[in-house]
Specification:
Number of helices: 4
Number of strands: 2
Radius of gyration: 14 Å
Shape: elongated
Oligomer: single chain
């Protein structure tokens, strides 16, 4: 079980980088994007679906959330990571 504290950057980065939903959604949607302007939309969609998985797992009891505040950081880290993955998938497709 993972403990989520108010501000723990190491845990937030690990949760963002190892979230399989973010990786899959960013790579699949980034590869299907036909214009580079769609990459921020892809990153936003991937980060929101990744956050939805995080929320469902925390509600199911897999994570102990002790305080609020880390969720915004998690969403931002996932957005940046998903944008990078989508850009790689978009570039490889070309």
């Amino acid at each position: 079980m993972i403990d989520i504290n108010a501000f723990d950057p190491t845990t937030l980065v690990l949760l963002a980088l190892l979230n399989p939903v973010v990786i899959v959604v960013a790579l699949v949607m980034g590869r299907k994007a036909d214009q580079w302007q769609k990459l921020p939309v892809v990153a936003f969609a991937a980060s929101l679906t990744g956050f939805a998985l995080y929320w469902l797992l925390s509600q199911a009891g897999f994570f102990k959330v002790h305080a609020l505040g880390g969720e915004a950081g998690l969403l931002m880290i996932q957005f940046v990571y998903a944008f990078a993955l989508a850009a790689v998938a978009y570039t490889v497709r070309r």
